[in-house]
Amino acid sequence: MPILCVANQKGGVGKTTTAVNLAAGLARRGQRVLLIDLDIQGSATVTLGAMPSNGELSVAECLTAERPLSEVIRDTATEGLKLAPAGERLAVVDIHLATALAREHVLKRCLASSLPHFDHVVIDTAPYLGLLTLNALVAADHVLIPVSCEYLPILGLKLFNETLARIRVSLGVPCDVLGYLLTMYDRRERITAEVEEILRRNFGSAVFPQPIRISTRHKAAPSHRKTIYEFERASGRGRVDHERLCDEVIDRLKVRTEQSFARLFETPEAAQPRARSSASEVG
Ligand SMILES: Nc1ncnc2c1ncn2[C@@H]1O[C@H](COP(=O)(O)OP(=O)(O)OP(=O)(O)O)[C@@H](O)[C@H]1O
Ligand SMILES: [Mg+2]
Questions:
Q1: What tens digit of pLDDT does each residue of 90-117 get?
Q2: 3.30.460.10, 3.40.50.300, 1.10.8.60, 3.40.50.12780: which CATH number matches 3-279?
Q3: How far is the CA of 71 from the centre of ligand 1 (A)?
Q4: Ligand 1 atom 31, closest CA
C-alpha cells in the first residue's frame, strides 16, 4: 500500500488540487484509494463535500487520542475513493502532537492500526512544515511536490529539499521524491519557461514530463464540491492533464516497487555505491 504525500511548504501551489484529483483519478481506475486531509484549512474535505458535522470524528480526534484512522473514514461521490476528513480541531492538533511520544510517528501509528486494505493512500498537507506535515512525511513512502510556475515557489524548494534530507537522516524514513510537478502552467508567460528550465536543470527526470496547465475549471471545481473528473468534459485540459499525471504516477510507483524488490536480492557490496550516490543527489 504505497503512501504518497503531496507536499510543499509554499502556499497555493496546487497541493490540494493535485491530491484530490490524483486520488480521484486512481479510484476511477478501479483502485481502492484513501485520501487523508491533513491541512487545517480542510480544502480537500471541502472539495469532496464531506465536512464532518458536529460530533462527527475527524483526523484531528484520531491524532490527538491515537485512535485508528479507520474510525473516521467516509465515502465520497467517487466510487472507490474514501476520505479521512480534516475537522475544525485539526488547527490545535500541532499543540497536542508536541507532547506526544515519538511525536513525528503518530499518524504512522494511526495508519498501522486496523486500516482496511487500500491500493493507495494520498495525503494532502498544509503549507507549512509543522508537526502535522512532519507526520505526513514520516508516514509516507513517497513525496510528490507541486511547484507553481512562479518565482517564489522555486526559492522555497531549496529549503524544502533540505528539510527532506534532514528528515531522512534524523528520522530514518525514505521521503522518496516521486516527482516535481509543474502546476498552473501557462505557456504565454515568460516566467513559466524560466521556472520549467530551472526545475528541469536541477532535478532532471524527477520533474514530471507533463505539467498541469492553468485552467479556470480547476479554480471553479472546488466551489461546486467536485473533482475535475466530475466538473469537466473528458477532453477538457484539466482532466487530460490529470489523466496523464495519474498514468505517470502509476508508472513511477511500479518502477519503485521493482527497484525495492531488486534490492532485496542485492549483495551488500552492490548496495554500497548506490547508497553513496543517493546520499549526494539532494540539492
Ligand atoms: N491548474 C490550475 N489552474 C488554475 N487554477 C488552479 C490550478 N490548480 C489550482 N488552482 C487554483 O489555485 C488555488 C490554489 O490551489 P490549491 O488549493 O490546490 O493549492 P494548495 O497548495 O493546496 O494551497 P494551500 O497551500 O493554501 O493549501 C485554488 O484556488 C485552486 O483552485
Ligand atoms: Mg491546500
A1: 889 988 898 888 899 999 999 987 778 9
A2: 3.40.50.300
A3: 29
A4: 219
